[in-house]
């Protein structure tokens, strides 16, 4: 951070952007977003080219929403620390990091059993050509790929380990404007990084959707890795005693 203090404004903002891009590639971030991408396979599609294009778009959107949630939390904490001069104890960020660990366990378990979270049905009116109107339910997770889950996951990640980085960033910069600008470009960097990563990650899952056994294997593999990462986070926090 001393290097940032001594650098020019453009250097500081460029560093924030680069750090944000790299930050998106942390294992727990990728694992959480990947659990939301796995179910993106579209078995009704006929063209492999259409498969890949649709996969990249849908998966990238999830990455954008994760990044938006992550950035939202980062900016809120930054405003509290830099704008209101509030002191946030490290135990807060450690507690949220523990929540991330349990969240990854939950996401992995739901993926193994192929279950959704916050899954519910919507009821929408539908009008026929003859003017008859009636309502019908549709599955929230299948018919509409809403991104509230990806956004929420990003928010939680932004409050966890990233929170400590926020405190360090805003306390190491001289002005409020510079601190918020740094956090904003950091958030933009995380959006860029996760958009790219999620777009690439989605390709094998949409291609494998035509091969149920392969798709199931990939689903189990992602779930297992996610659970291991979550368990490791919980173990590191509880075994070192830093949570207490």
Write a brief caption for the model.
The protein has 244 residues and is mostly helical. It has helices at 2-6, 9-23, 27-37, 48-83, 90-112, 140-143, 148-159, 161-172, 176-208, 212-240, and strands at residues 121-127, 133-139.
Structural class: mainly alpha
Count of alpha and pi helical runs: 10
Largest sheet: 2 strands, antiparallel
% residues in beta strands: 5-15%
Overall pLDDT:
80
SS elements, strand count: 2
Which strands sit side by side, in order, in the main sheet? 1-2
Question: How would you explain this protein's 3D organization?
Answer:
With 244 residues, this protein is mainly alpha-helical. It has one domain. 74% of the residues lie in helices and 6% in strands. The chain has ten helices and two strands; from the N terminus they run αααααββααααα. The protein has helices spanning 2-6, 9-23, 27-37, 48-83, 90-112, 140-143, 148-159, 161-172, 176-208, 212-240, and strands spanning 121-127, 133-139. It has a two-stranded antiparallel sheet with strand order 1-2. A hairpin with a 5-residue loop joins strand 1 and strand 2. Helix 2 runs parallel beside helix 9 (176-208), helix 3 packs parallel to helix 5 and helix 5 (90-112) runs antiparallel to helix 10. The longest helix has 36 residues, at 48-83. It is globular. The relative contact order is 0.24. The model is unreliable at 118-122 and 138-144 (pLDDT under 50).
